[in-house]
Design brief:
With 97 residues, the chain is α+β, with helices and mostly antiparallel strands. It has a single domain, classed as secretion proteins EscU (name from scop, 3-Layer(aba) Sandwich). The protein is 44% helix and 15% strand. It has a three-stranded antiparallel β-sheet. Strand 2 and strand 3 form a beta hairpin. It is globular, with a radius of gyration of 14 Å. The protein starts with a strand and ends with a helix.
Length: 97
Amino acid sequence: MTDQRPDAPRRRAVALAYREGGDAPRVLARGYGELAERIIAEARRRDIFVHDAPELVALLMRLDVDERIPSTLYQVIAELLVWVRDLDEREGERNRG
């Protein structure tokens, strides 16, 4: 996830990962500026969807690496993951079609 607002002082990025058997997604990486750019570039290199959600990024930037997302964010993260899955499925259908 990234914050690309024109008024943002510097770019921010947070990478989330859900481990099989885990109870909640965890922060895999987070950073500002150059580090944020590297996180985004690596996600794109691996064909991982990058979502712009400034308010969510701001909340997730408060977490430490490997920290689970708080239960207050479960709903919004779940909705985001379902949305990304649906995008992936539609893209797969287009590639097969």
